[in-house]
Amino acid sequence: MFFHPACGKIVVMALTSAKIKELAYEQGFVLAGIASAAAVEDLAADRLVEYINGEQNAGMGYLARNLEKRLDVTRLVDGARSVICCAVSYNNVNEDVNDELLYIARYARFGDYHNSIKRRLRKMVELIEQYCDSRPYTRVFVDTAPLLEKYYAVKAGLGWQGKNTLLLNKDYGSRLLLGEIVIDIELEYDEPVETGCGDCELCIRECPGGALLDGGKLDCKKCISYHTIESKELIPDDIAEQIGNRIFGCDSCQDICPYNINAKLNTDPEFMDRFVGISKGELATMSEKEFVNRFGDTPILRAGLARLKMIAGI
User: Fold this and answer.
1) Does the reported pTM lie above 0.85?
2) Model confidence over 238-262: pLDDT tens digits?
3) Are 282 and 98 in contact (CB under 8 A)?
4) Hey, which bits of 8-81 come out as E strands?
5) CA atoms of 55 and 305, how far apart (whole Å)
6) Is 168 within 8 Å of 154 (Cβ atoms)?
7) How many CA atoms lie less than 13 Å away from 311 in the CB half-sphere?
8) Which of 311, 130, 151, 135 is nearest to 233 (CA)?
9) Which one-letter DSSP state was computed for residue 229?
10) In this structure, are residues 190 and 264 in contact, taking their beta carbons and an 8 Å threshold?
11) Known catalytic residues?
């Protein structure tokens, strides 16, 4: 039995937290957990405000917008009671053996995960509705709304936030992509897991720009991924010196992590690598049409051909 605020009464449902996780695994998610849609705890809220006030979000001004919704999911979704957190793995075999290839971040080597994960979450919603006496109110999110994904994933027991600032799971490492269903039903919630980083600081020392700070903080102004993916401005000289052959993203903090080195490999065809990079010569002669034909359904499209060429020094 659960209290359903839409009808203001106790309703009998066959839906359980265990059933929701079963549905998630059937849709190909490797991790699933459920957290309360309670407002963000004071310590986490203070850290976010400190992060923004310190301008460590660099040019990502959108992180400062809708702050009240980021800190309270009930302001984002009316009647929110639970956050169903799911994750897929993209931990594929490392085939980066050709140093002449320009580097593309691992998460961008296949179709845009936003579309893939949303499709799976929406299918889950359809199935969840079949277990409810009355239709619940739900909203699906994948990385594009003011929802603190990693915060709720930690609360849902999917892992902990590592010193590389990413969600880390003892079996799947940090090469995970997240998606959420916010629902107006109170469910049985999972417990957070213990942090597993210990005294390890390999990721902090490996970061080329020195962007990873003590306390699990990230200064985006020093982050190669920020400058090659998010930013549209000229890359500062001190960052450009550290970029090397990277043109879209940087995985150094993940590649060095012991949890990633020992993580289970991805078996999901939808998140298998289509490519591992591109040669400078091929990029130099590529037309806009060729660029869209090859990368139009991947995250690389957002950078645009002109910026990729600029980063590559073409």
Assistant:
1) yes
2) 999 999 999 999 999 999 999 999 9
3) no
4) 9-11, 31-36
5) 28
6) no
7) 30
8) 311
9) I
10) no
11) 143
Pairwise pLDDT comparison (6 vs 152), residue with the higher score? 152
pLDDT at residue 47 above 80?
no
In b/e form, how buried is each residue of 41-69, taking b as 16+ CB within 10 angstroms? eeebbebbeebbeeebbbeeeebeeeeeb
Q: What's the mean pLDDT when you consider all of the chain?
A: 90
Spatial neighbors of 48 by CB under 8 A, at least 6 apart, are: 40, 67, 70, 71, 148
pLDDT in tens, 51-74: 666 656 565 555 666 778 888 999
Backbone dihedral angles phi then psi of residue 40, each to the nearest 5 degrees: -60, 135
Token pair in block for residue 4 = 């359903």
Rounded Cα–Cα distance for residues 314 and 81 (Å): 51
The kind and range of the H/E element at 161 are: strand 160-161
Provide the token pair at 58: 């660099």
